[in-house]
Design goal:
With 240 residues, the protein is an alpha/beta fold. The protein is built from 9 helices and 7 strands, in the order E-H-E-H-E-H-H-E-E-H-H-H-H-E-E-H. It has a 5-stranded parallel sheet with strand order 2-1-3-4-5, with helices on both faces. The protein has a two-stranded antiparallel ribbon with strand order 6-7. Helix 3 crosses helix 4. The longest helix has 16 residues. The two termini are 34 Å apart.
Length: 240
């Protein structure tokens, strides 16, 4: 199964915004998605070549829209304006494909730049909806670059849950799946066996991930063996 490559286009509005983009990138990587952002460019690297090459061969391009970035694109300023010229060509090439996905991080208007108004955007302006939006985004990314706009059909489940999808988990991926299992059962806690059945992970792999999550303070284990998110774990996931 091909690992999709995703390029994230965003403006450096603030350190907080940059951290949010990096968090999104980290969470997407947990789903075996190859994410490219400008922090991957080494010091002294050619910025224009970096943008040109990765924008061209990416399976998906996420355009993070804030009030400042939309204004910059309209005024033709900054790196996002340069990327806009390349991305606009992708949009014009075939309006029925979903190579370009706008991600809205603000509540102002216009939500997206004019060249993306034909595209349905995902609204990430409310942090407490981060998890549900992330699942829909992953679904849209994994549909493949040659599929039509299937992202218009909202879904909270992926098309498959095979063991192959959950190998080489990192902490972010484990936390995401733990939360999904918790939501599926309707309980505020989860059990090791439930996660094991959902993912197909071995006992050794699962216990290693649980130990890491407990050690960092994101998860705690009750005297009955149930797994609970700590306040820090919920903050990490962006859930209430």
């Amino acid at each position: 199964m091909k690992i999709p490559k995703v390029f994230i286009s965003y403006s450096h509005d603030s350190e907080a915004h940059k951290e949010w983009v990096e968090k999104l990138a980290s969470r997407l990587k947990a789903f075996h998605i190859n994410v490219i952002i400008d922090s991957d460019l080494p010091p002294g690297g050619n910025i224009q070549h970096f943008m040109d090459s990765h924008l061209e061969d990416a399976d998906r391009i996420l355009v993070i829209c804030t009030e400042r970035s939309v204004a910059k694109m309209k005024a033709g300023k900054g790196g996002v304006a340069y990327e806009k010229n390349i991305i606009a060509d992708e949009v014009m090439e075939d309006t029925n494909k979903i190579k370009v996905i706008p991600i809205v991080r603000h509540k102002g208007n216009p939500k997206v730049p004019s060249y993306l108004r034909s595209k349905r955007y995902l609204d990430f302006s409310e942090d407490h909806h981060f998890e549900s939006n992330l699942e829909e985004l992953v679904h849209g990314i994994k549909e493949g670059p040659d599929h039509t706009d299937d992202i218009n059909t909202k879904t909270n489940q992926f098309s498959s849950s095979t063991t192959e999808d959950y190998r080489d988990f990192d902490l972010a991926g484990f936390m995401t799946i733990m939360n999904r299992v918790r939501n599926n059962t309707g309980h505020p806690w989860t059990k090791e066996q439930e996660i094991k059945e959902y993912t197909g992970l071995s006992n050794i792999e699962l216990k290693k991930l649980i130990k890491e999550a407990v050690g960092i303070g994101y998860v705690e284990i009750s005297h009955t063996g149930k797994l609970h998110f700590t306040k820090e774990g919920k903050t990490f996931l962006g859930i209430p």
